[in-house]
Each structure stands twice: as structure tokens, then as C-alpha cells.
Amino acid sequence: MISVAKAISQVIENVKKTDTVKVSVSDALGHVLAEDVTARLTQPWADVSAMDGYAVRAADVSTVPVDLTVIGESPAGGCYDGMVAKAQAVRIFTGAPVPKGADAIVIQEDTVRDGDTVTVQETATPGRFVRPAGLDFKSGSMLLKAGRVLSARDLGLAAAGNVPELTVKRRPRIAIIATGDELVMPGEALGPNQIISSNSVMLAAYVTSLGAKAVDLGIARDAPASLTPLLKSAQNADMLVTIGGASVGDYDLVNQVLDQEGVDLGFYKVAMRPGKPLIFGHLHGTPVLGLPGNPVSVGVTSAIFLKPAINAMLGLDTTTTLEPATLGSDLGENDQRQDYLRATSAVNGSGETVVTPFSKQDSAMLAKFADADCLIVRAPHAKPAKAGDAVDIVRL
Q1: How many other β-carbons are positioned within 10 Å of the β-carbon of residue 122?
Q2: Is 307 helix (H, G, I), strand (E, B) or coil?
Q3: What CATH topology corresponds to 20-42+140-169?
Q4: Which of 352, 335, 349, 342 is nearest to 375 (CA)?
Q5: Domain covering 323-395: architecture
Q6: Fold agreement (20-42+140-169, 48-131)
Q7: What are phi and psi of 241, to 5 degrees?
């Protein structure tokens, strides 16, 4: 058996970064930015009003109340081309350019209008409620650095900078094959001794959440003639992930068929629980990750191995972040395998994160896995632990 750390390193080192593509800014959500984005304009392009009110000379409203003559209007999307002189004002709206001569905005709530006369009731200093040109950014300013996962806010910023397309990392194509005679898809009629193929649904959703593209190739039955064509159809993927059939039972054919097809095997057992029967290798240049068949094993091994693999393809950080927490219940001594215990977390009155493992940790219990929000990581041969002891967790 190989250690978890060595297995992760081997997976990360044996996947390739994806190339780059250009996408519309409106289609770039969740993509990894591959090139820096700079502004193509200055925002705002001129001194503009931050409020609805009147553009004035601050010197004219240093003492109030004072009457000013309204000489025009500056609407959003328009402007007033004249000059504001002594004792004059221009009606102005949010986002409209400040007229020449004016250096402050008096909000409309602080005024009383009577025909062409406005009575200003509050003073204003120079720059009051004025957004100067370039307040947000200037033409050529750096807006977004390469390497970030693009959020809705990022896309709004790029659009505001007049950038219509972004160069991003291509989403990795992750081919998925579930294996087993017992599997049927959700909604199909269950025959004798059959179960629902929930793993492929869960895995495809997880792949998508990581910024990759899931390609579900379907279910391979427990016969080489069923599995072999599906393996070959995955040759254009950035990674192939199989579910089930990775152990050593008579009907666990993934290892056998991969060997027949000429797989370059890296490892096939990892010292962890759940997830010991885990395969990694290359099939005709395509990385292959063979996951166990139990639902929790699929979920845990995906979080520990598939997530850093996809991050490596996208040029993101591949480190699995461990957070400190306080144990909420006693734990016994661990054996030679690294343990990942499903648990729930809560913050106590002292602000500490307290994590409580489920009393049953069976790798077939998907309901408990759905309830969990973290994994307690226990090293091989860890000593018994008491409630209140410090532990490390991986967030789900």
C-alpha cells in the first residue's frame, strides 16, 4: 500500500494543465482566468455626480440658506455644456457629468425649488458628492490577475472595463464510467438485486462544482466486452474516472481490463479509510483514477484525490487545506491506515470549531455523508483521543 501523501503527489505530478480558450465575459463564470485583464476605459470617464441634486460652486453655499438661479439640467446619459458662474446651479442626476465651474453637489433633500430659483439649506465643501474621473479605475489599470476563479463580481468588473472576452483555462474533461451488473440509473425500474447508480450522479456534480466538465459515459457491466469499449471512448478526456470494480473480487474487473488494455499502473492500494482499493495509472496517455464502489468511498476519495488533480489541470493550488478543530467526542486508537471520519461541525461559545464524528462510519451510508460538513483526519497509528483534544479537519 502507498501512503495518502505519496498517492496524492503521484496523481498531481501525472496530470497535464489544460490549454487556454477565449470565452464571452457573460459565459466565464467559474472559469480560471489565464491572462491578466486591464481596463479599456476610465471609470468614471469624467467627474460625475454621486447623488440627485444640484451642481453648485462650494463657495456660493458656504453660508445658508442661500438662493441660486437654476440655469440648466445635467441628466444621466447627457450633460450641461455651459459654465456654472457665481450664484448659479444646475439640476443634476446620479451619474451625470458635473458641469464646468461647479465643484460640489447639494442633494435635493437639502433644497427647496421654486421655478428657476433653488434655495440651498445645507452647506457643501468642494468635492462633496462628486465622483472624480478614474475613481474606480483608469484606462490600462489592472482589473483582474490571472489565476483567479472568476466570480460574478469579477465578470461585472471586466464588463465595466469594456472587456468583452476573457482568456481562460479550458475546463478539464473528466470522463466517468460506473461499473456493475447491479446498477440502474435513477428512475429506472429496479430488477432483483439491483441498486441505483447514485455514485455517477454525485461524482458528475462534484466534477462540475470543481470547474471541470463531467462526461458521463454510462454503466459498464461486469464483463470485459462491456467495459473495454467505454475505456477506449475516454481517450480524448483529460482524465478517466471509474467507479467500482477496483478491488480484488471475482467481479471486480477494472484492474483486469486496464491491464489487458496496457495500462501504465502507478498504484492500486492506498493506506486510507475509506478508499483503500484505489487505482491510478495511464491508459494510452490518459490518466485513470479508479475509485471504489461504496458511495462514501467515492465522495471521500474524490475530495482527497480528484479535487487536487483538477486543480493541477487548471493551474490552481493543489494543497488540501487542513483546519484545526476541537474534538467533540472520544475516539479510539487508529490502525495503519489514514482515517477520514465523517463529522459535523459547530462553533461553541468560545468561538472554537467543535467537530463530532458520526458513531457509525460505514462507507455505504450516503445519508450520513450528505449530513457531514467535514472529515476528521486521523494519521496512521494515531493514539486514542478524548473530547476536547485538537484534531485536523478537511471541509466538505
Answers
A1: 13
A2: helix
A3: Molybdopterin biosynthesis moea protein, domain 2 (3.90.105)
A4: 342
A5: Beta Barrel (2.40)
A6: no
A7: -120, 120
Residue 396 has a CB neighbour count (10 Å cut-off) of 15
Residues 6 or more apart in contact with residue 114 via CB below 8 angstroms:
none
Query: 2-5 — which CB contacts under 8 Å span 24+ positions?
Result: 2/267, 2/269, 2/270, 2/271, 3/270, 3/271, 3/338, 4/270, 4/271, 4/272, 4/304, 4/338
Which CATH number, 3.40.50.10610, 2.170.190.11, 3.40.50.720, 3.40.190.10, labels domain 48-131?
2.170.190.11
The model's pTM is 0.90
**Homologous superfamily of 4-16+171-314:** MoaB/Mog-like domain (3.40.980.10)
384 C-beta neighbours (distance < 10 Å), count: 10
Q: What angle do CA 367, 373, 379 make, to 5 degrees?
A: 100
Domain ranges of the chain: 4-16+171-314, 20-42+140-169, 48-131, 323-395
Residue bearing cell 478614474: 134
Each residue's pLDDT expressed in tens, for the chain with a length of 396 residues: 899 999 999 999 999 999 999 999 999 999 999 999 999 999 999 999 999 999 999 999 999 999 999 999 999 899 999 999 999 999 999 999 999 999 999 999 999 999 999 999 999 999 999 999 999 999 999 999 999 999 999 999 999 999 999 999 999 999 999 999 899 989 999 989 899 999 999 999 999 999 999 999 999 998 899 999 999 999 999 999 999 987 665 556 888 899 899 999 999 899 999 999 999 999 999 999 999 999 999 999 999 999 999 999 999 999 999 999 999 999 999 999 999 999 999 999 999 999 999 999 999 999 999 999 999 999 999 999 999 999 999 999
The number of beta carbons lying within 10 Å of the beta carbon of residue 260 is: 13
Q: Are 283 and 263 in contact (CB under 8 A)?
A: yes
